[in-house]
Amino acid sequence: MNDRTPSVECLVALQNPVRSNPSIAIKTGERHESDNPWIVFALVAIGTFMTMLDASIVNISLPAIAQTFHTSVGGAMEWVIIAYLVIIAATLLTFGRLSDTVGRKPVWLAGIALFTIGSGICGAANSLPLLIAARAFQGLGGALLFATSLAIITDTFPVKNRGLAMDFFCEHSGRHYWIRGRTKGAAGYFWHDTPAV
């Protein structure tokens, strides 16, 4: 073979410099297989669990919240639920793309911070407008957590264990329905988020 004929490895390196040089990384497809990926799984699952729990658990607390703020359950009270869900729906895809650009971990950590701060403000809110604004802020954190959860699990687990991790993740995420029916209270409801994260 002619010495000047490029090898297969060289051709692959020219077409895909990331594979040939590990120091070059594309954040979208990075694989961060840790020594114990289940620790990462547990952290991501807790964040997603809290995000999904907050999407519906406040429904059973609406009468108590309305009584606290001396208002009816309908009307403006409905925005305590709507603000959270609308913000998540409006920003989920954007935050998913952001995690492709800047990395999963910074987006997820920002989500934890915003979600925890939002939960604290919800618990301390002394007026309905402040509670609604805090719920919208909490929704930003929830969207950051939710947008990156499955991507983090996919990036963390090797192919042979990825299906099992996804299965456990989906099963875990559904448990918020069971807990929702056993949680009551107005301001006390919002405080359940803060120590969990």
Describe the structure.
- By secondary structure, this protein is an all-alpha fold.
- The chain has a single domain (34-196), classed as MFS general substrate transporter like domains (Growth Hormone, Chain: A).
- Helices cover 72% and strands 0% of the residues.
- It has helices at residues 8-15, 17-20, 37-56, 62-68, 79-102, 104-124, 128-156, 159-173, 176-180, 187-191, 193-196.
- It is elongated and about 55 Å long.
Give descriptors for this structure.
single chain; mainly alpha
Ranges where pLDDT stays below 50 over 5 or more residues in a row are 6-29, 176-192
What's the gyration radius in Å?
A: 22 Å
Amino-to-carboxy terminus distance: 61 Å
Order of helices and strands: HHHHHHHHHHH
Strand count, sense and closure of the main sheet?
none
Helix proportion of residues, in percent? over 70%
Give the overall shape, derived from the CA principal axes. elongated
- Quote the beta fraction: under 5%
Number of strands: 0
Q: What is the name of the CATH superfamily?
A: MFS general substrate transporter like domains
Q: Into how many domains do the coordinates divide?
A: 1
In CATH, what is the class? Mainly Alpha
Assembly level? single chain
Could you please say which CATH topology applies here?
Growth Hormone, Chain: A
Structural class: mainly alpha
